[in-house]
Amino acid sequence: MADITYTRDDMGFSYRVAGIVLRDGRVLLQNTGNEPGYAFPGGQVAFGETSAESLAREFREELGARIEVGELKWVEENFFRWNKTLFQQISLTYAVELTNEIPMEGRFRSREIRADGDQVWFTWMPVKRLRDSDITVYPHAAADLLARWNEGVQHIVRREQ
After folding, report:
1. pLDDT value for 114
2. Residue ranges of the domains in the chain?
3. How far apart are the C-alpha atoms of 100 and 156, rounded to whole Å?
4. Rounded distance, CA 52 to CA 98, Å?
5. Do residues 93 and 18 make contact, with C-beta atoms less than 8 angstroms apart?
6. What is the pLDDT of residues 65-118, one digit of tens each?
7. R_g (Cα) of the chain, nearest Å
8. Residue 41 near residue 53, CB atoms below 8 Å
9. Which residues, in sequence order, are CB contacts of 117 under 8 Å at separation 6+?
10. For domain 5-159, is the CATH number 3.60.10.10?
11. CA pair distance 95, 18, nearest whole angstrom
12. Which residue from 7, 29, 91, 95 could staple onto 16, CB 3.0 to 4.6 Å apart?
């Protein structure tokens, strides 16, 4: 199936889904060797899949993990520039429970390589570090959003300058 993403001229759109996995005061995050920031694991929603189906597929493909998708925690409207393209992205982020084991220590590599050739890496970050000035996590309000975990679905609009 094709991902729900497109570019035309200098504009693009993508539909992303992500999962929040919490364990022992740590949260699972991903990044690439070419990007300084971290994001919650996930990827593009494929045409014909629900967001939950896409999230389960992404975790299976990248981590070999089986998951149970829980409550929707936040919806993000994200406007950013990627290379020379201005993107608008809709991202749904869910609570996720692992139903099998994955590495729990250190930094470990994804099972797949992205289409652009970048390798995705995963790490368990202490939740308390999300507020540190030397750590960039997307969405930028991640620490605040996690602190409001039980307050229902949060809506974020982020425009890069």
Report:
1. 66
2. 5-159
3. 31
4. 14
5. yes
6. 999 999 999 999 999 988 889 999 999 999 999 999 888 888 887 777 666 667
7. 15
8. no
9. none
10. no
11. 9
12. 91
